[in-house]
Amino acid sequence: MTDPVQEIEEAGQTLARARAEIAKRIIGQSDVVELALTAILSGGHALLVGVPGLAKTRLVSTFGTVLGLDANRIQFTPDLMPADILGSEVLEEGKDGSRLFKFIEGPIFTQLLLADEINRASPRTQSALLQAMQEGEVTVAGQHRALARPFHVLATQNPIEQEGTYPLPEAQLDRFLLQIDVDYPSRDEERDILLATTGIADAEAEQVLDAAGLIALQRLVRAMPVGEQVVEAILTLVRAARPEAAEASEAARGRLAWGPGPRAAQALMLAVRARALIQGRLAPSLADVEALAVPALTHRMALTFAARAEGATIRGVIAEIMAGLRLEEAA
Description:
alpha/beta, Rossmann fold, Helicase, Ruva Protein, domain 3, five-stranded parallel sheet, two-stranded antiparallel ribbon, 47% helix, globular
């Protein structure tokens, strides 16, 4: 019988090698890499929000290489149609004159999908991803077609240029396990980027995992024990962020139009385990809950009109809620 402690330690070593390979091509952005890896190990999807030129596309292609996954990229545009993502049936004529429909798979039939600038596509096209992200299958011409295993979507969104875009509906935002804010690099990191990417040769990352190995790690994440104190902290945090709930904090009642649903608590439960595994720990702690509160809740909450007028931010409201909870006493 496999020793769970040894299994977690070996997984931590494997993930450390994976992060080292990713760091060959992604300079800095260690928090972004950890959060993206957390989302994938949790079996979920992530929304990367940042201005152009911050290596979001490079990050996804590097993840595909290191994790041993087939990767595709879709550039979302206003004229993109659902069939451009899912695929379509075409009528083919055989040599004997017979005709039959043949299904041509779209780029969604992959293991790691980069949905670039997802908010540029129309709502109809955005919704084509809903079933795939939630159920791991798509329906084309009345037939259910299973996607590859594992299947993950890493979508990007530009927070500045909003003209001609279609904000993602709440139902689709909720499908993303984490929202990852990609910030500018530090001066030293940007210097290293200049030296590393403007020469003749570009660094190459090597494969560390494959699809089967990743699936095994995802099972291990779900098998990790979670202490009662951490469970209670997650429940306390999520319920305090619902303005209509009896346990709502003052910050939520005064500034939020709506708060996170049960899927937010599920996301936190998985993400804290994955973060602990990445860092080589045997079980998640309250520090993991605090570290993942913003990525797990930001896209699942909305400010009231009055709060927006006052200049409030979702991140600031979450910080206020966290400050008033004293999670160490949640249990």
